[in-house]
Amino acid sequence: MPRREEVNRWFRDYDNPMKDVVLAVRDAVLAADPRMDECIKWKAPTFIAPGAGNLASFFPRSKQHASLMFHEGAKIPGRHARLTGDGETSRVLKLGTVAEVAEARAEIEAIVAAWLGWKQGGAKKAGVKKAGAKKAVAKKAAAKKKVAKKVAKKVAKKAGAKKAGAKKLGAKKSGEKKPGAKKTGARKKTTRATV
Prior knowledge:
With 195 residues, this protein is of the alpha+beta class. Helix content is 51%, strand content 15%. The relative contact order is 0.09.
């Protein structure tokens, strides 16, 4: 990513013994991924990416080391040994020499990659999950519809059977005989002789 003129102007006016270290960190972050960009926010250089927000900002007054505060460093996926702090949100990267920046370059790249993956990849995954969720809901609805049809058929069958059973029961009560039905258990009439 090209260096922004507003940030170049800021560095021209930046008078600090850590200026070379801060510039080396700037190079490492911007070189980590072509999506990385920079601007001035909170009166300091801040690293940003489209659709991802603010990655980190320099603490410009630090004279012992280059101090880069990662705004949501605690939430960046993965383990990053050089990020320090124990708060709920931010983490800080402190590097004292240009040589330390060179040693930390691979970790800076890993932090940038993890952050971009979380911020930008997460949005893509959320879209995929959303589409998948819609398909799952549609499948469930279709399955419920299928089950409802089966249940409706069973209920209709039972209702038909009950109706037929009610007709049979009605026929017995009225004393009608079913064709071909045998009499079973009929009482025999007997007459007693009286003396």
